[in-house]
UniProtKB/TrEMBL annotation:
Binds 1 [4Fe-4S] cluster. The cluster is coordinated with 3 cysteines and an exchangeable S-adenosyl-L-methionine. The gene is queE. This is 7-carboxy-7-deazaguanine synthase. GO terms for biological process: tRNA queuosine(34) biosynthetic process. Homodimer. S-adenosyl-L-methionine binds at residues 33-35, 73, 114-116. HAMAP family: QueE. The lineage of its organism: Bacteria, Bacillati, Cyanobacteriota, Cyanophyceae, Synechococcales. Keywords: 4Fe-4S, Iron, Iron-sulfur, Lyase, Magnesium, Metal-binding, Queuosine biosynthesis, S-adenosyl-L-methionine. GO terms for molecular function: 4 iron, 4 sulfur cluster binding; carbon-nitrogen lyase activity; magnesium ion binding; S-adenosyl-L-methionine binding. Pathway: Purine metabolism; 7-cyano-7-deazaguanine biosynthesis. It catalyses: 6-carboxy-5,6,7,8-tetrahydropterin + H(+) = 7-carboxy-7-carbaguanine + NH4(+).
Length: 199
């Protein structure tokens, strides 16, 4: 368990909305551009009871949080059944942010899949996701994003498709903007929390 905090969702289709974040420890996907590398080693962070996290989520709901986000690290390295069960009585929609490399556990109202080219997701996560958000640094990332969208669209959800330029990547910004302008099924995701200086 790395941290919990109440802030604004900074990116993706729910960007700008009040949210309570639960950041879990552990990640072996190891993206070079990751901005939460401190979350990678599970052993560096203490475990916390799910009911304590649910109590914090309840307080955040009373303070205006519109939903709960379970993120990481890679949250699906853990079985999330117990955590989701504890959170359900709070009454907030439960969102998941994942790279999709592990088996799905838990029950979610919204799944944001952010697949990585060096560790592609399972087809099960591709067909289960509500939002497909691919980080773009170079042309190969765009090719990967298009392939992931084709695979995801074989599911029943028909996810929202989003391209997100890598942080400080001018090439990624240009590629993503030009592609979204010419392909109306896609949207641009920006990390607005970094601009605003919020968590």
């Amino acid at each position: 368990m790395v941290e919990t905090f109440h802030s604004l969702q900074g990116e993706g289709i729910h960007g700008g909305r009040s949210a309570f974040f639960i950041r879990l420890a552990g990640c072996n996907v190891a993206c070079s551009w990751c901005d939460t590398k401190h979350s990678w080693p599970s052993e560096a962070h203490p475990q916390r009871p799910a009911e304590h996290l649910a109590a914090e989520a309840q307080s955040a709901a009373q303070a205006g949080a519109a939903f709960v986000v379970i993120t990481g690290g890679e949250p699906l390295h853990h079985n999330l059944d117990c955590l989701c069960t504890s959170l359900k009585p709070v009454g907030l929609p439960i969102h998941l942010e994942t790279s999709g490399v592990d088996q799905l556990s838990g029950c979610f109202d919204w799944i944001c899949l952010s697949p990585k080219r060096h560790r592609p997701p399972s087809q099960a996560l591709l067909t289960a996701c509500n939002e497909l958000k691919v980080v773009v640094h170079e042309a190969a990332d765009l090719e990967f994003a298009v392939a992931m969208a084709a695979a995801a669209n074989r599911g029943k959800n028909k996810p929202v498709l989003m391209l997100q330029p890598g942080a400080d990547s001018k090439a990624g910004s240009s590629i993503a903007i030009n592609y979204v302008m010419a392909h109306p099924a896609w949207r641009l995701s920006l990390q607005t929390h970094k601009w605003l200086g919020v968590r």
